[in-house]
Design goal:
alpha/beta; Leucine-rich repeat, LRR (right-handed beta-alpha superhelix); binds heme C; 28% helix; 7-stranded mixed beta sheet; 7 strands; 326 residues
Length: 326
């Protein structure tokens, strides 16, 4: 009946919260140097342990094999924070070698996550929790040919409800009633209520980002989204069986599965997608043989795998090209 005193003390030491209103530490000058020094030897370009890359903003956002590494605004729900906060010698502590991070480093990372885990240098004002819907991470490019005709705009009450639960819905520029939906700020795990809201946007949804808190069960909502062109599932907990649902999205052109546990069996499902143009398989459990088979089935498909990771230019990790930097 003896409590592990050391662990308890460490937990208390680590629970100091960021005072409200305090500016979050700057990613480029305060956080990235810690990742560079202590993490990227295993979570970088050469080794991608647990499917997690901490050397690029895209990698940090995508998370690893078990999903999100950081939940913006919620250090207590962020796996990365939990792992670095374990007491020295704990079997799951990160980094596993070379001793724990210092207390100051841990507090900095926590404060950064609490402040929204912003990965751009000067963007510290953005606080996802109360900000207006942010544009979809990877812009929908040249989707014009494949886009459905303009739809009736979604009722403003529906859009307000989406915003309230943390579903970012943004209208596609130059169209009416077509939307990009981002579920990044939904709670873990999200529920039928949120799923219902996405479903009610129906044929207006052309682009959907379900990273990172999504499981196979959530994918049932896809059957209500006949116009979906772009689906991002990076770093989610989806498996091959979830892809059976995805395989019914006949208009889907782009699919991002990076950092999931998808295997070659899932690729057989992907091969059924008639409109698919590109798929990202970086950090998945697929094999070169499986990918070769997929390429044979869909010769025009652009497939991004670990083998395609450009040396020395992690910014191009994003399949659709570089994101605009602010
Ligand atoms: C010596 C190699 C090594 C270093 C250095 C390292 N890690 Fe890891 N990391 C691993 C391995 C191996 C795993 C997988 C552990 C498992 O699945 O049991 C992992 C898993 C993780 C995960 C869980 C990812 C997931 O989705 O399951 C996170 C988060 C993480 N590491 C964060 C960090 C951070 C932050 C640092 C630096 C402070 C770091 N790691 C440094 C080897 C390393």
């Amino acid at each position: 009946m003896r409590l592990p005193l050391l662990a308890t003390a460490a937990a208390i030491a680590c629970s100091a919260a960021l005072g409200a209103g305090e500016a979050a530490p700057d990613f480029a000058t305060k956080i990235k140097p810690i990742f560079d020094e202590r993490c990227i030897s295993c979570h970088g370009e050469k080794k991608v342990k647990a499917g997690l890359r901490l050397d690029t903003p895209a990698g940090i956002t995508a998370g690893g094999k078990s999903g999100a590494a950081v939940v913006a605004g919620k250090p207590e729900a962020s796996k990365l924070v939990t792992l670095i906060s374990h007491p020295a010698g704990h079997e799951d502590i990160m980094p596993p070698k070379g001793g724990p991070l210092t207390k100051e480093q841990i507090e900095l990372i926590k404060a950064w996550v609490a402040g929204g885990a912003v990965t751009a240098g000067g963007d510290a004002k953005a606080k996802p929790a109360e900000s207006k819907p942010q544009p979809f991470m990877i812009p929908v490019r040249e989707p014009r040919a494949a886009l459905p005709a303009d739809q009736t705009a979604a009722p403003s009450t529906l859009l307000e409800r989406c915003a309230k639960v943390g579903l970012a819905v943004s209208a596609l520029p130059g169209s009416t009633g077509l939307y990009e939906v981002n579920a990044r700020h939904l709670p873990t795990p999200w529920s039928a209520a949120e799923s219902d809201l996405v479903g009610r946007l129906g044929s207006g949804v052309v682009s959907l980002d379900l990273s990172p808190n999504t499981t196979d069960a959530h994918l049932a909502v896809l059957t209500k989204l006949p116009a979906l062109v772009h689906l991002r599932l990076a770093g989610t907990a989806i498996t091959d069986s979830g892809l059976e649902t995805v395989a019914k999205s006949t208009r889907l052109e782009r699919l991002d599965l990076r950092g999931t546990v998808v295997t070659d069996a899932g690729l057989d499902q992907i091969a059924k997608l008639p409109a698919l143009q590109s798929v990202v398989l970086i950090g998945t459990k697929t094999t070169a043989d499986g990918v070769a088979k997929l390429r044979a089935a869909l010769p025009k498909l652009v497939v991004k795998t670990d083998a395609d990771l450009p040396a020395g230019d992690p910014a191009t990790l994003s399949p659709e090209g570089k994101r605009p930097r602010k």
